[in-house]
């Protein structure tokens, strides 16, 4: 919930109980009515803060203070990974993707996660608006929806079994990251940095999203090919 949620809950309780919010006006004198007005205002503000703290309204509240250095060019990030011998993490995200924002707010920025990610080359591919190069990325990484987070080890192998789709809390994500760093899972499960999937394996669910569609209406879901 965080400090904002706790403050909201406190204001809500004080506003309702201390402000006598449910007492009829005819039972109150002038001072009592003023007190009630203040209590109702406090309760409204408290309710909004509580909802905000719970992440039910507005953008998700960051649960940590960690920061991640996000590159934005996948090709350049891959070149950097090859030249430095470091592992690469690719986060496919979009502005309209709520789970993407939750992953950023609650997991990537977590105090225990951000330092671990600093060991990686991290790149975020913004798929808010369709771009010509996105089709090849979707086919290559088997993207059926967002968020999709792919891990490529220092040898250039895509660890397919560790690909993350959807939200994951910090503790579970750290376990996934540790497995990726050890190379214990899916070490040879995917193509190298320069490989790609056949065009016949292009994911169809993205055909519902086009650059002409309003961003607010884009909610891609996997489409069965059976």
Description:
This protein has 2 domains: 52 residues, no CATH class; 144 residues, Glutaredoxin (3-Layer(aba) Sandwich). Helix content is 39%, strand content 8%. The chain has a 4-stranded mixed β-sheet, with helices on one face. Helix 1 packs antiparallel against helix 2. The relative contact order is 0.12. The C terminus is likely disordered.
Would you summarize the structure shown here?
The chain has seven helices and four strands. The protein is of the alpha+beta class and 226 residues long.
Shape: elongated
Strand order of the largest sheet: 2-1-3-4
CATH topology of the largest domain: Glutaredoxin
Number of strands: 4
CATH superfamily of the largest domain: Glutaredoxin
Q: For the residues shown, what is the average pLDDT?
A: 76
Could you name the ranges where pLDDT drops below 50 across 5 or more consecutive residues? 185-226
SSE order, as H and E?
A: HHHEHHEHEEH
List keywords for this structure.
226 residues, alpha+beta, Glutaredoxin, 2 domains, four-stranded mixed sheet, 7 helices, 4 strands
Blueprint of the fold:
Elements (H helix, E strand, L loop, with lengths): L1 H17 L11 H24 L20 H11 L3 E6 L4 H11 L5 H4 L3 E6 L7 H8 L6 E5 L11 E2 L4 H13 L44
Helix pairs in contact: 1-2
């Amino acid at each position: 919930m965080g400090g904002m949620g706790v403050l909201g809950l406190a204001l809500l309780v004080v506003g309702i109980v201390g402000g006598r919010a449910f007492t009829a006006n005819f039972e109150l004198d002038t001072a009592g009515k003023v007190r009630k007005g203040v209590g109702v205002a406090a309760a409204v503000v408290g309710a909004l803060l509580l909802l905000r703290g719970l992440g039910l309204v507005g953008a998700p509240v960051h649960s940590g203070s960690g920061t991640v250095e996000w590159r934005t060019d996948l090709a350049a990030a891959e070149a950097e990974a090859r030249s430095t011998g470091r592992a690469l993490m690719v986060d496919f995200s979009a502005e309209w993707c709520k789970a993407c924002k939750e992953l950023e707010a609650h997991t990537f920025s977590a105090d225990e996660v951000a330092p671990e990610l600093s060991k990686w080359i991290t790149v975020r591919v913004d798929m808010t608006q369709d771009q010509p190069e996105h089709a090849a990325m979707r086919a290559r990484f088997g993207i059926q929806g967002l968020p999709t987070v792919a891990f490529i080890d220092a040898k250039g192998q895509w660890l397919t079994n560790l690909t993350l789709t959807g939200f994951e809390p910090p503790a579970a994500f750290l376990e996934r990251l540790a497995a990726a760093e050890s190379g214990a899972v899916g070490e040879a499960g995917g193509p190298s940095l320069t490989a790609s999937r056949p065009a016949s394996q292009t994911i169809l669910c993205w055909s519902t999203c086009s650059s002409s569609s309003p961003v607010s209406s884009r909610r891609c879901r996997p489409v069965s090919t059976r």
